[in-house]
Amino acid sequence: GAVVSQHPSWVICKSGTSVKIECRSLDFQATTMFWYRQFPKQSLMLMATSNEGSKATYEQGVEKDKFLINHASLTLSTLTVTSAHPEDSSFYICSARGPLVAYEQYFGPGTRLTVT
Amino acid sequence: KQEVTQIPAALSVPEGENLVLNCSFTDSAIYNLQWFRQDPGKGLTSLLLIQSSQREQTSGRLNASLDKSSGRSTLYIAASQPGDSATYLCAVRPGREYGNKLVFGAGTILRVKS
User: Which of A50, A67, A72, A101 is deepest in the core (most CB within 10 A)?
Assistant: First the structure.
């Protein structure tokens, strides 16, 4: 149980275009989801906290107009990278707050974004 | 501000060895600490979660300890195998922060040679 999926697993897009990444909790409802990015050989950095039915809370230094987050249902959160640039190329990982153990997060498999 | 440090940054051992990975955090006021495994290009797999009131957790060949007062945790891997090769991440949930945010260390890259 407590499985989180992401789609797509990898995507290549051209500079200036937008790309959407989906994060789904498959067998539980998640009122809270989190979006992280990870650069090569570095750890995960929290970008934003996504709460179902309300606006996302962004970490300091993360542009909310560039990284649009929508958490429209209890099983789906989306991250849209708008007007992507090569420096946005990274590994994006989402997690969902689990249904059982208090405050445990379950992580998706990640999405590799490459902007050319 | 909570900061998490992991030592060593990389470790290479022969198969069969017992090994210890270290994690330290600057603010002892935490709700819990979690150890994860990450394979190259993959997401995170949770290995062990220790609540602040606990001293250790065990799962198979893995044992994680927590000394909250000193801001330290160790992950002990017994009889290491090549399949254990991965990056191991330590993360804490700060007690004073709202929102269930995890603070991650930079990880230890483990290579077990056959």
Answer: A50
* Contacts with B, A 21-60, CB within 8 Å: 32, 34, 42-46, 49, 57
What is the chain A residue with the closest CA to B107?
A43
Contacts of A42 in chain B (CB under 8 A): 106
Residue with tokens 């959160």: A77
Digit-coded pLDDT (tens) for A74-105: 899 999 999 999 999 999 999 998 666 556 78
| Whole-number average pLDDT of chain B | 93
B36 has a chain A CB within 8 A of its CB:
yes
Strand partners, A32: A51
pLDDT digits (tens, 9 = 90+) for B83-111: 999 999 999 988 765 556 889 999 999 99
A93, A44 Cβ separation under 8 angstroms: yes
Query: CB-CB: which of B32, B42, B43 is closest to A103?
Result: B32
Phi-psi region of A87 (alpha: psi -120 to 50; beta: other; left: phi over 0): alpha
H runs (alpha helix) in B6-84 = none
- Which of A45, A77, A6 is CA-nearest to residue B91? A45
Q: Which of B23, B57, B77 is nearest to A43 (CA)?
A: B23
The residue in chain B having the minimum alpha-carbon distance to the alpha carbon of residue A42 is B106
